[in-house]
Specification:
This is Threonine synthase. By secondary structure, the protein is an alpha/beta fold. The protein is built from 21 helices and 15 strands. It binds pyridoxal-5'-phosphate and the ligand N[C@@H](CCOP(=O)(O)O)C(=O)O.
Length: 467
């Protein structure tokens, strides 16, 4: 298995090189040269596997034996040892057709832990085995940063800098990131929004001399390993369902911001998981919903919502989807991305919209509907959703034609992370101890302007450049 870029100008590379490259050096996103096919028989044989063993099977299709099996197995075991549920990702049944896959039982209470605990361990492994300098640079709307920091804090050979939008993450998210005192962690609080943070890191990754000098590595979903690790939970959810419920295929409702969560499902479907509908759930920052329903990919004004982690306009993984939509034609992708850069929008024809809608449907959830959903599921099922998971449930309800097959809605965060929204409907929650204790800890962060030069200077002072 080799990896190439959606823009076609990266010579095919192996798994570890792909992991270290992160963003394609031609500005594109890295994808596998071919997507392996998992047969129905193989799937059946995997149906009794633990989450960890299932991940080992899926990853083995992609790693080219670059990581010996016993090492990969240990990396995976270690990555989920800190999850509090014995099933790692429990599937809760609300009624016969609606199931909630709880992805938030990791150390930072959000679905990002599923991939990032593993990526932190993989970076430490590569740092040691290959004597590589690992200087991680990431942007976050709150969850990726907390999770990535938790996965590498204090680890030898690794430094991590995370940019988050100042005042636009939840209190708990901010504390999770900024109360970490390890010297290998730098939090930059940027006077801007998440898109500004993401834009700056992409520019720094695209500056190849800077990237090379400072050995920049990615933990965001621009890194294909994030997507691959997330695709495993679609296999798992499908296989956890009783056979009679999954016989007609399974539908997923997926809270999405950077298009990473849903693209992972799209990849799982391409590999052979019998997924019928992928329902994309957005909040009021609904660029992706407008893309799917109206064929217009165009950022509009940024809005602060009750689900701040999805307050995103420019979605990284849109380009990965575009690549497959364009029949894996890197020239067509490059042309469309150039047009987007020049004109600030992409318009799709009605024939193209129909094709997109065969791949996924979409629903955008207003702030009001988000809170109503939290309230009604608390009343009806005594189940407390966080605002992002509530967007998923609201989209499941709003997704017109339910068709056949069970629905799995992805619960992407613990409600304690977003108490600001939960309190608005008068619900008081008890925080898990690991969250409660954050409130007594001192914080460490540097506030910076939304300016690439100022941020680059911070990085130059922080990163170690030789072993
Ligand atoms: C809690 C939560 N839910 C859903 C999402 C959406 O995930 P993605 O942006 O990877 O599609 C995010 C981050 O964006 C998140 O932090
Ligand atoms: N919601 C994310 C935004 C960053 O997206 P990523 O999937 O590319 O890491 C966050 O919580 O930071």
């Amino acid at each position: 298995m080799k990896y190439i870029s959606t823009r076609g100008k990266v010579a095919p590379i192996g798994f570890i090189d792909m992991f270290l490259m992160g963003l394609g050096e031609d500005g594109g996103l890295i994808v596998p040269e071919t997507i392996p096919n998992v047969t129905a028989d193989q799937l059946k044989a995997w149906s009794k596997l633990s989450y960890q063993d299932l991940m080992l099977e899926v990853f083995s299709l992609f790693t080219n034996d670059e990581i010996p099996e016993q090492d990969l197995r240990k990396l995976i075991q270690d990555s989920y040892a800190g999850f509090t549920s014995p099933d790692v990702l429990p599937l809760t049944t609300l009624n016969d057709s609606l199931h909630v896959l709880e992805l938030f039982h990791g150390p930072t209470f959000a679905f990002k832990d599923v991939a990032l605990q593993f990526m932190g361990n993989l970076y430490a492994y590569v740092a040691k085995k290959q004597n590589k300098v690992i200087n991680i640079l990431g942007a976050t709307s709150g969850d990726t940063g907390a999770s990535a920091i938790s996965s590498v804090r204090g680890k030898e050979g690794i430094q991590i800098c995370i940019l988050h939008p100042n005042g636009k993450v939840s209190r708990v998210q901010e504390l999770q990131m900024t109360t970490v005192q390890d010297d290998n962690v730098l939090n930059l609080s940027v006077n801007g929004n998440f898109d500004d943070c993401q834009q700056i890191i992409k520019e720094l990754f695209a500056d190849i001399p800077f990237k090379t000098k400072y050995h920049l590595r990615a933990i965001n979903s621009i890194n294909f390993v994030r997507i691959l690790a997330q695709s495993v939970y679609y296999f798992y959810a499908y296989l956890q369902l009783p056979e009679k419920l999954r016989a007609d295929g399974v539908n997923f409702s997926i809270p999405t911001g950077n298009f990473g969560n849903i693209f992972s499902g799209y990849l799982a479907k391409k590999m052979g998981v019998p997924i019928k509908q992928l329902v994309l759930a957005t909040n009021e920052n609904n660029i992706l919903e407008r893309f799917i329903n109206e064929g217009v990919y165009k950022p509009e004004g940024f809005r602060s919502t009750h689900s701040p982690s999805m307050d995103i306009q420019i979605a990284s993984n849109f380009e990965r989807y575009l690549y497959y939509f364009c029949g894996e034609d890197a020239i067509a992708v490059s042309e469309r991305m150039e047009r987007f850069k020049a004109e600030g929008q992409l318009i799709f024809t009605s024939e193209e919209i129909s094709r997109i809608q065969q791949d996924m449907t979409a629903y955008s959830v207003s702030n009001e509907e988000c809170l109503e959903t939290i309230q009604s599921y608390k009343n009806e099922f005594d189940y407390l959703l966080d605002p992002h998971s509530a967007c998923g449930i609201a989209a499941y309800k709003g997704a017109g034609n339910k068709g056949d097959g069970a629905f799995v809605s992805l619960a992407t965060a613990h409600p304690a992370k977003f108490d600001e929204a939960i309190r608005l409907i008068g619900i008081e929650q008890t925080f898990p101890e690991r969250i409660q204790e954050l409130f007594d800890k001192p914080q460490r962060q540097v506030v910076v302007e939304n300016a690439k030069a100022e941020i680059a200077t911070q990085l130059e002072g922080f990163y170690r450049v030789t072993q």
